[in-house]
Amino acid sequence: FQAEDGIRDVERSRGLGDVYKRQISGESYERRIGDLAATSSAYTSFRLKTYEDVPEGEYPLRVYHCSGECAAKNYKDIYLQFSGTSDLRLVNYSFSTQTIIPEEDFTITLSIKNFGTGKLRDLSVQINNSLQGLIPFLFKDKANNYYLGDLNPDSTMSIAFKVAVNDELEPGVYSIPVIVNTPTQSLHVGHLVFKLSAKADLTIPLVETEPVIPTLGKPVTIMATLENVGPGDAKSVVAVLEKGSKIVGANYIGKVESADDDVALFEIVQDAEKDYVVRVTYTDDLGEHEITKNFTSNYEVVTDFSWIQNLLVLSGLVVIAFVVYKKKLKK
Question: What is d(CA 193, CA 100) in angstroms, rounded to the nearest whole number?
Fold first, then answer.
C-alpha cells in the first residue's frame, strides 16, 4: 500500500508538503503486507504531520495498492478536512481628499485582510459611528455595517463608503474604530485616523469714516469691520486700503477667531479721489484667501474764509491806528 498526494502517479512522492506549498508535510510510504488470502483483510496506517498554518479547507489524499511488480494499481481518494482560526486586520485605509471639512462629501476606502487559517463567514464592515456624543459620519451611498460575505484565509477585501462629516464636530484629529461583525461575534480590526479641518469665512460687512462726512484736505480715519462667520480661525489677516493702483494704508490684524470680529483702521488725508478698495488676505486650514470691498468717501468741500476775517481785523487795526495818529497831531 502507498499513500500518494493525488497529484502525480509516480512510485515515490516528494511529500505532501512539496505539492501543497508546505501546507502539509509527510513522505509517501510503502508498506509491504505479504500474502493476502482470499476474502481476507489487512490493515496499515500512515502518520502525517501538518503545519500549524494550513488554511482551512479540504485536501485530497490518494491511497492505492498493488501486487507483484505493481504494473497495475487500484486506488481510492480520501479527503483531509482542516479547520482554522481567522485573524482579521485593517491593513489600509484612504480618503479621496487630502483636506476633510464638515458637510463636504468624500470617500473612505477600507482594506481588511484575513491573516488567519480559518475562513470568516457572513462578515459585515462597520465604522464605529459614535464620537463625543455625536454621529461623526453621514453615510451617503450605502449603510454602515455593510455586508461583504465570506473572507478566505490570506485574502483581502476592500469597501468604499461615501460620507460627509457632521458639521457639529469640532476641528481636530480623530481616531475611529473599524468593526467587523459576524452572526456570532464583533471584531475590532483597527482604527482610521483623520484630521478635520476648519474653513474660515471672513467678510467685510461695514466700512465707515470718522468724521462721518470727511472734509477735503483734512485727516480722516477709515474703519473696516472684519467678521469671521466660518467654523475655523482666520490667521495672518492683513488689510490694506487701495486708491487706484496704489496702497495708501496697511493694517496687520493677525488672527480673527471663529464667530469673532475685528476692525482695520486707516489714517489718511482726504484728497479729491473718492473711491477706495479695502483688500483683506488671510489663511486657514484650506490655504490662502482674499476678499475685497469697494468704498466711496462722500467728503464735503469747505471754503476757507479765514483770510477775509483776517483782512477785516487788519483793516480795523489800521483805522484805529489812523485815528490815534490824527489825535496826536491836533495836540
Answer: 12
In tens digits, the chain (331 residues) has pLDDT values of: 344 443 333 333 334 443 344 444 555 667 777 787 888 888 877 777 777 777 888 888 878 778 777 777 788 888 888 888 899 999 999 999 999 998 899 999 999 999 998 899 999 999 988 877 788 899 999 989 999 999 999 999 999 999 999 888 888 899 999 999 999 999 999 999 999 998 899 999 999 999 999 988 899 999 999 999 988 899 999 999 999 889 999 999 999 999 999 999 999 999 888 899 999 999 998 899 999 999 998 887 655 556 566 666 677 676 676 666 666 666 5
Establish how many alpha carbons lie within 13 A of residue 141's alpha carbon, considering only the half-sphere containing its beta carbon.
10
CB 204 within 8 Å of CB 226: yes
pTM over 0.70: no
CA–CA separation, 223 vs 255, rounded Å? 18
Cell reading at 248: 495708501
Q: Are 154 and 125 in contact (CB under 8 A)?
A: no
* Rounded Cα distance, 133 and 23, in Å: 48
Task: Spell out the residues 6+ positions from residue 145 whose beta carbon is closer than 8 angstroms to its own.
Answer: 124, 125, 126, 179, 181
